[in-house]
């Protein structure tokens, strides 16, 4: 069963226009992966009969299980049934239990039922009808040309209800599914994607089960470890063994699993060490402070912050000396050091962190765009200032600066 190829086709022009996100495909993929079914393709097609039919033809030629979401409503642009009928010549009929539910709904709510609502009760004559506990239109399971077709409404809560209550139990029983697929995300910071892949090359080249997939994000990278096994416990064992091998090679850069964030990890380190922090930001414009404040419980560790964008504000609000500003400039290690020291003192925090630099696009004080200085002044009154040269557009440089600040702060805290 692990070799079954599954495909998800979402029907709806609103998806193509970006008016709503295709969260159904993401959720469905996660659910069926738990039972060892591999999703090979995601597709989105607009409300056009010929294009929906063509999408179904393509899916029929390459997939064993096709999940179709959307296009089962009452209006003229709901064309999923019509497209599949054009492909297969199957007969549509009105499902009595579904039409009873629809008519009862309108009667109960004292509303007039328009004729097009009967369309929602149409099912194929050889279909397994899947009751919709969250809405009107039922789902269907149809066998055609050695493929299993699963039709469900596009409304997420209706699709999820039908999947959980009917589709998964049907697939488990019919396909005798005895394989699970589990994944774990390992998150790293302070190492680039190419370097991470280089360090893990021996493991990646030899991978079979589990598989190892590097992923890149702004300012950090991750490894997704995915295992197939007969039980969740065996899959966990496979993932643990591979994770340990990864940690032997790049464990010093690891900071968390799955949905854990570097921001939350730094918050936990501050709280566990009973430390507070204050921020002095120039080019980042308060983004670092905002990232901390976004964490529930931030008041336990965050004293406050100063956005000192101009040289005058650095002088008047943070007390950066005129000598430093005139001799070294605002984009300098000296300025970053004084910003961190003074915000720590002014806001009575245990740690001060500062950001000053050039987000671009123009150079400043003879220094190119992307030049950034980050300073940390810690509990022992020792200064740490690092210079960086980031690539990218203005926003990208600011994002990388904030992420690098969390990296430096984490490294500082774990050494206390």
UniProtKB/TrEMBL annotation:
Residues 7-174 form the MoaB/Mog domain. InterPro entries: CinA (IPR050101), CinA-like_C (IPR036653), CinA_C (IPR008136), CinA_KH (IPR041424), Competence-induced_CinA (IPR008135), MoaB/Mog-like_dom_sf (IPR036425), MoaB/Mog_dom (IPR001453). SMART domains: MoCF_biosynth (SM00852). Coiled coil: none annotated. CDD domains: cinA. It comes from the Bacteria. SUPFAM superfamilies: CinA-like, Molybdenum cofactor biosynthesis proteins. It holds the Pfam family MoCF_biosynth. Belongs to the CinA family. NCBIfam families: cinA_nterm, molyb_syn, PncC_domain, PRK00549.1. This is Putative competence-damage inducible protein. It comes from Aquibacillus halophilus. The lineage of its organism: Bacteria, Bacillati, Bacillota, Bacilli, Bacillales.
């Amino acid at each position: 069963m692990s070799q079954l190829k599954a495909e998800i086709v979402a029907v709806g022009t609103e998806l193509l226009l970006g008016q709503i996100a295709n969260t159904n495909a993401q959720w469905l993929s996660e659910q069926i992966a738990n039972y060892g079914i591999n999703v090979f393709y995601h597709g989105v097609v607009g409300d056009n009969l010929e294009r929906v039919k063509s999408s179904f033809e393509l899916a029929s030629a390459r997939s064993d299980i096709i999940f179709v979401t959307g296009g089962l409503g009452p209006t003229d642009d709901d064309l999923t049934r019509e497209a599949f009928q054009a492909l297969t010549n199957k007969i549509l009929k009105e499902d009595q239990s579904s039409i009873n539910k629809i008519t009862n709904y309108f009667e109960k709510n004292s509303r007039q039922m328009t004729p097009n609502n009967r369309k929602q009760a149409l099912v194929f004559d050889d279909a397994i009808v899947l009751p919709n506990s969250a809405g009107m239109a039922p789902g269907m399971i149809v066998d055609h040309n050695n493929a299993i077709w699963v039709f469900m409404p596009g409304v997420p809560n209706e699709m999820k209800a039908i999947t959980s209550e009917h589709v998964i139990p049907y697939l488990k029983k019919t396909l005798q599914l005895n394989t699970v697929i589990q994944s774990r995300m390992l998150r790293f910071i302070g190492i680039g994607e190419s370097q991470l892949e280089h360090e893990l090359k021996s493991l990646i080249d030899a991978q079979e089960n589990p598989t190892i997939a590097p992923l890149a994000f702004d300012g950090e990278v991750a490894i997704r470890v995915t295992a197939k096994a007969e039980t969740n416990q065996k899959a966990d064992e496979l993932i643990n063994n591979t994770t340990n091998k990864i940690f032997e090679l790049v464990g010093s850069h690891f900071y968390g699993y799955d949905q854990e964030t570097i921001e939350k990890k730094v918050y936990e380190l501050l709280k566990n060490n009973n430390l507070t922090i204050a921020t002095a930001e120039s080019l980042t414009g308060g983004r670092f402070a905002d990232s901390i404040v976004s964490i529930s419980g931030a008041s336990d560790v965050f004293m406050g912050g100063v956005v000192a964008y101009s040289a005058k504000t650095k002088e008047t609000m943070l007390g950066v000396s005129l000598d430093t500003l005139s001799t070294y400039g605002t984009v300098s290690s000296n300025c970053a050091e004084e910003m961190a020291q003074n915000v720590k003192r002014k806001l009575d925090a245990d740690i001060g962190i500062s950001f000053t630099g050039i987000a671009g696009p123009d150079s400043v004080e003879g220094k190119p765009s992307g030049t950034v200085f980050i300073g940390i002044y810690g509990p022992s009154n020792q200064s740490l200032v690092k210079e960086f040269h980031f690539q990218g557009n203005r926003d990208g440089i600011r994002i990388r600066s904030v992420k690098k600040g969390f990296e430096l702060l984490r490294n500082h805290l774990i050494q206390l």
